[in-house]
Amino acid sequence: MVLKPGLEGVPVTNSGICEINGTEGRLSYRGYPISELAQKSSFLETAFLLIWGELPTENELEKFEKDVQMHRRVSFRIRDMLKCFPESGHPMDALQASAASLGLFYSRRAIDDPKYIYDAVVRLIAKIPTMVAAFEQIRKGDDPIQPQDDLPYSSNFLYMLTEREPNPLAARVFDRCLILHAEHSLNASTFSARVTASTLTDPYAVVASAVGTLAGPLHGGANEDVIAMLEEIGRPDEVSSFLNDAIAKKRKIMGFGHREYRVKDPRATILQAFAEELFSEFGKDEMYEVAKALEEEAISKLGPKGIFPNVDFYSGLVYRKLGIPRDLFTPVFAISRVAGWLAHWREQLGANRIFRPSQIYEGAKMRNWKPLESR
Ligand code: ACO
């Protein structure tokens, strides 16, 4: 048996959802280039594409949008549960618990029932933003803001977060960010979703398990750490000394490096353009100058090792400009990635075999139990 730490390069499933070309920096969902989807599609249309395999017709999209809109509200019991959580707790923990709690409300019907599958998809996509925004209001000491029916998906989330209807450019940029983060093949959280799905448990457990995995700083949590790092650097002229010190101490540059890419992540390039669009409309951000200086210098030092900016390098700067608190960056990632997780849930169920890898045992040989007095 050959050990492959981190399963690097080990295929564990066939998939038709997302294709990454890590040497040329290309990414597509169901065959459609990410740049085209980010330009022309909406998040809900992209979610439909990922989950059901084809772009929706006009009628299908209208029905999907309406169904999602109708299921945005969450039970008062979920709001009450969120009120019991400590305000100092991380919103990803609140999201993981509330996503899992949805399983308590919806019966565990046969998971091969198409209506159960459709309803679960709609509920998860509809309710996750509401739960994220509700926790934000509750921890500030306010009541959750109810979804506003006449607002589209992304605008409604920003409204529930800020109690203000967002500027159209801000809403459009946010919707595009959701498209960019919606799917990325077998990353850690999606793998986690597939492992959980392979036990035939319910989709709420599948998503809760993926949320827990996304939370870590080596995965979705990196977008928060990028901002902390840029704040630590402070000014563009501090970049060199920060970088030299980080490299000497083998400290990782957050938002850099990716298992799949040996060039700049194509999503980082698109996000950078969104950041610039926002700054030209709403004013410059000092932090962006630090990020650009860091990118330039880090590429010259780490590029030869195949380490380039990933999607998280610029996403935090965009979210910051949209007024999203830093510890909500990863929950926002989850709002989007739930589409990919659900696509993989369906695909896993279509050709399921429970995941049960093996290990190379290195522990003690068989030995006799010792009584307490002789240990
Ligand atoms: N900064 C500096 N060096 C790095 C970085 C980085 N961000 N990433 C990798 N390296 C170096 C490692 O130190 C290691 O060097 P060595 O061979 O001299 O020891 C080499 O590159 C390989 O690194 P690994 O961590 O083994 O690479 P792996 O493919 O396992 O990890 C990962 C990929 C986790 C994304 C890594 O690049 C990292 O930790 N990046 C920072 C965190 C981050 O931005 N995560 C977000 C990823 S995107 C996402 O999840 C949405």
From TrEMBL:
<dbReference type="GO" id="GO:0006099">
    <property type="term" value="P:tricarboxylic acid cycle"/>
</dbReference>
<keyword id="KW-0808">Transferase</keyword>
<dbReference type="InterPro" id="IPR016142">
    <property type="entry name" value="Citrate_synth-like_lrg_a-sub"/>
</dbReference>
<feature type="active site">
    <location>
        <position position="258"/>
    </location>
</feature>
<keyword id="KW-0816">Tricarboxylic acid cycle</keyword>
<dbReference type="InterPro" id="IPR016143">
    <property type="entry name" value="Citrate_synth-like_sm_a-sub"/>
</dbReference>
<dbReference type="InterPro" id="IPR024176">
    <property type="entry name" value="Citrate_synthase_bac-typ"/>
</dbReference>
<keyword id="KW-0012">Acyltransferase</keyword>
<dbReference type="GO" id="GO:0005975">
    <property type="term" value="P:carbohydrate metabolic process"/>
</dbReference>
<dbReference type="GO" id="GO:0036440">
    <property type="term" value="F:citrate synthase activity"/>
</dbReference>
<dbReference type="InterPro" id="IPR002020">
    <property type="entry name" value="Citrate_synthase"/>
</dbReference>
<feature type="active site">
    <location>
        <position position="312"/>
    </location>
</feature>
<comment type="similarity">
    <text>Belongs to the citrate synthase family.</text>
</comment>
<dbReference type="Pfam" id="PF00285">
    <property type="entry name" value="Citrate_synt"/>
</dbReference>
<dbReference type="InterPro" id="IPR036969">
    <property type="entry name" value="Citrate_synthase_sf"/>
</dbReference>
<dbReference type="InterPro" id="IPR011278">
    <property type="entry name" value="2-MeCitrate/Citrate_synth_II"/>
</dbReference>
<comment type="pathway">
    <text>Carbohydrate metabolism; tricarboxylic acid cycle.</text>
</comment>
<dbReference type="GO" id="GO:0005829">
    <property type="term" value="C:cytosol"/>
</dbReference>
<protein>
    <recommendedName>
        <fullName>Citrate synthase</fullName>
    </recommendedName>
</protein>
